[in-house]
Amino acid sequence: MKVTIAAVGKMKNSPQQDLMQEFLKRIPWPVEIKEVEAKKGLSGEKLKTQEGELLLNLLPKSCKIIVLDEKGKDIGSEEFANKFTEFEQEGSSQVAFLIGGADGHSQQVREQADMLLSFGKMTWPHMMVRAMLAEQIYRAYSIKQGHPYHRE
Fold it and tell me: What is the largest CA-CA distance in the chain?
């Protein structure tokens, strides 16, 4: 499975980046991080629309799209791992995760999604979400392989 993480905003050197990199290096699947930044001075729907267009333009063709969204489905790690298996069974070898800006995603991005995914009702810093996502992708891989990293 090839994984793309497309996010609004540039990640700077930080503990969150170190943590994200720690989990990314454990994942044997190829993982590509792509970052975008919208033009300065935009706000509201115009900002979300531009961020959405920038994110969608980064995606590989024929990939499954999982949009991280506060209104998305809140699932457990095993169900998350099963999504990778489902995608493989559907013939897809690529999945892309989209992390929006502070104002969330545009309607266009939501409509393109194969799944809207929430990390719970709490609000998380965008840079922390990247580290959490990397850990969950590694955990999904571990579950699929029967590795003891994930314990029930």
Answer: 48
Note the pLDDT tens digit of each residue in 72-100.
999 999 999 999 999 999 999 999 999 99
- pLDDT over 80 (residue 151): no
Domains and their CATH numbers in the chain? 2-38+46-145 (3.40.1280.10)
Residue 61 is predicted with a pLDDT of 87
Residue pair 66/95 in contact (Cβ under 8 Å)? The answer is yes
Residues 150/22, Cβ–Cβ less than 8 Å:
no
Torsion of CA 82, 84, 86, 87, to 10 degrees: 170
Under 8 Å between Cβ of 38 and 51: yes
